[in-house]
């Protein structure tokens, strides 16, 4: 016997008994996002490595540590670790800036990051997300947050906390970065290796560190004074205040979190997370924000943009298990030809029908039917000779014999 080959570490099969949950999430995404006028886009899972180095940021953990990158025909190619950069690339390449603004796009699909597998996080994982291009006003921020909340509620997640913050624009953020570096510099040698690396390249990312010793340092009063200071310019302040006004009018409950910076370099102004009270420390189910400079940085025209993404594995882990759905009918017969013909007629009418392909005994077929179907469609010798079918309701036990042409009405009960 040959050696067994197992699934790669950090990847999982999505089995038939689990797939209905995935369909449920995906169908609700289509329904909710479509209600906001958002159209689906599907981009390749492989992209030029340069797209993520420029788009996600060379100082991020994703680019530094977590990308699956390989050389092919003297080109560096990467399995996508996230999809915002890919959607922006498609937006530019396909001339979508010529479409009436806003251009609203949503996606679903697998992403890839080489990191330690843990609960709700795998090396191949799936995300669903939305990107909106062409609107600089804070109404777009409010709609994006509302859309994310509507979707989460549509799949049954009600205990949600929305956290928001503003990172300002590059102009007003520059002074904040300097102030932050000045107050943290005396403790630089006590920070973790990642924070020491981020200190010069991207000091805002320091606030995203989860290492307890670093968190203790950042909790010091003089550092907190800088973190909680209002460094926003007048324009960014107005944008942020108007966003909060919109959220209040929409009855979106939120809190402000000055430590919220998100893990990617491209964010400007609004960033947000939505957290579920049903998870432990890793409780964020949605993250997003505004990235007004990314389109231009990737070679397009200056275009304001905002979006969010959610991990589907984490969402599904929070949902209540559903009973597997049953097919409409199971044909019970020892005449395989007639069973095949009846099943095909009903499938063409829109019903989900199975038959026993092994021609087992009637009792075995009925036993199988009771497990997988709502109705047993019995085709015995008498039924075949009289062009009839006995329809047994496998929930109530009621059984009727009808003409073959009248089965549809019996299955609609």
Present the secondary structure layout.
Elements (H helix, E strand, L loop, with lengths): L15 H20 L3 E2 L5 E3 H7 L5 H6 L1 E5 L2 E5 L4 H10 L9 E10 L11 E10 L4 H17 L5 E7 L3 H15 L8 H9 L10 H7 L2 H7 L6 H16 L4 E3 L11 E9 L7 E7 L3 H4 L7 E7 H7 L8 E7 L2 H13 L4 E3 L6 H11 E7 L1 H5 L2 E6 L5 E5 L3 H5 L2
Parallel strand pairs: 1-5, 7-8, 12-13, 12-14
Antiparallel strand pairs: 2-4, 3-4, 5-6, 6-11, 7-9, 9-10, 10-11, 14-15, 15-16
Helix pairs in contact: 1-5, 5-10, 6-9
Model description:
The chain has 413 residues and is α+β, with helices and mostly antiparallel strands. It has 2 domains: 16-168 and 232-318, Bira Bifunctional Protein, Domain 2 (BirA Bifunctional Protein, domain 2, 2-Layer Sandwich), CATH 3.30.930; 327-411, Anticodon-binding domain (Rossmann fold). Helix content is 38%, strand content 23%. The chain contains 16 helices and 16 strands. It has helices spanning 16-35, 49-55, 61-66, 84-93, 138-154, 170-184, 193-201, 212-218, 221-227, 234-249, 294-297, 312-318, 336-348, 362-372, 381-385, 407-411, and strands at 39-40, 46-48, 68-72, 75-79, 103-112, 124-133, 160-166, 254-256, 268-276, 284-290, 305-311, 327-333, 353-355, 373-379, 388-393, 399-403. The chain has an 8-stranded mixed sheet. Strands 13-12-14-15-16 form a 5-stranded mixed sheet, with helices on both faces. Strand 12, helix 13 and strand 13 (353-355) form a beta-alpha-beta unit. Helix 5 (138-154) runs parallel beside helix 10 (234-249) and helix 6 (170-184) runs antiparallel to helix 9. The longest helix is centred in the first third of the chain and has 20 residues, at 16-35. It starts with 15 loop residues before the first helix and ends with a helix. The model has no long low-confidence stretch (mean pLDDT 90).
